[in-house]
Amino acid sequence: MAVTRTGAFCRAVAVRAALWGLCLAAAITSAGAQIDRPADEALAALQERGRLIALYLQAVDKAGELLKAQGGVTTPPDRTLAIPERDGWRVVYLGTPAGGSTPPAPGRKGLSIVAETTFSPDSGQLGALKVLVPSKTAPASLQSYARSLDEGENAVLSGPDKGGPFLEAVVRESDGTFSVYVISQRREEGERSSAAGNRDSVLFGRDFVVRIGATGKPLIASEKLHDGVAVLPLHPRAPGAPLLHEHDKGDLPAPTDVALVLRHPALAPLLVLTRRYIFRVDREGTVTWLGPNPNPMPAASPAPPAPTGSP
Question: Which of 161, 75, 147 is nearest to 115 (CA)?
Fold first, then answer.
């Protein structure tokens, strides 16, 4: 009988231990489910916008190389626009009309299409360059793109962080307005001396998103995406040794952070430490939430407005 009682007692202890373990697991699961984290939709929108900016910059870069290689345009274009369309991207070079005495300011009525080509976002390749002789006046829709870039530049140049060179991308939102992303790569003396050279590093900060009306005017809002500036090296690193970028505005990385990683894959994997969270940005532009920031920073500035849609 003693053995029977001992066995019963052991079984009771085992049952209680199992129940306690199940309760603990449930409590841990419940606590995990309650962890404050960004919504998956917000991360998906961030990735999409960052990739869109990177594709725009890539299209304009390659369009400039194509024009230099093939020529055929007597004067350099005032603007090069990359516009997503249903069957691919259209790249348009806007310039002064043939025979014009003085070049009009970028975005003003009178800019003409002097050449154009296409861009494939899947392959990253351009189509054949088509030079228009004579050039033709750009339609109102293209003029509004050019005006929005002009307004975006003016908004940045009027502030304390003025100065290029600029990387620029313009996105037409679903409501017809424009978002102009202006990324300055201007280096201060201390920033130059802290890096081997501009080609060996990338500047994070001095970037802005400027909201422009549907006609390319008026300026709706201008927002700085970083408060501080950091220079990150492009030198090769040991496997598994990521770079760290301390993002000082809002709870999410800026879309320009994602765009710069896509533009410079050597930066990946890039760890982005925001006020409340830690993220990883891979070379494909994927943003992964890694968890809460163990030393959360005090709130300083509101997060940038979420993108309202793709063009």
Answer: 75
Q: Note the pTM of the prediction, 2 decimals.
A: 0.80
User: Helix 255-263 to helix 40-70 angle, to the nearest 10 degrees?
Assistant: 50
How far is the C-alpha of 34 from the C-alpha of 28, rounded, in Å?
10
Report the pLDDT averaged over residues 178-203: 74
Contact 115, 80 (CB under 8 A): no
Write the pLDDT tens digit of every residue in 52-82: 999 999 999 999 999 999 877 877 899 999 9
Integer CA distances (angstroms), 54 to 51, 100, 159, 238, in order: 5, 34, 25, 26
SS in 3 state form for 203-267? EECCEEEEEECCCCCCEEEEEECCCCCEEEECCCCCCCCCEEEECCCCCCCCHHHHHHHHHCHHH
Question: Which residue, among 229, 231, 216, 300, has the nearest Cα to 264 in the 3D structure?
Answer: 231
Of 83, 76, 208, 79, nearest in space to 147 by CA? 79
User: What amino acid is encoded at 85 in this protein?
Assistant: E
What's the gap between Cα 275 and its chain centre? 19
State the Cα torsion 158-161-162-166 to the nearest 10°. -130
Q: Residue 242 carries which DSSP code?
A: -
124 sits in the region (left: phi over 0; alpha: psi -120 to 50; else beta) called left
Strand partners, 243: 270
* Token pair belonging to 265: 């894959």
Secondary element (H or E) of residue 115: strand 112-119
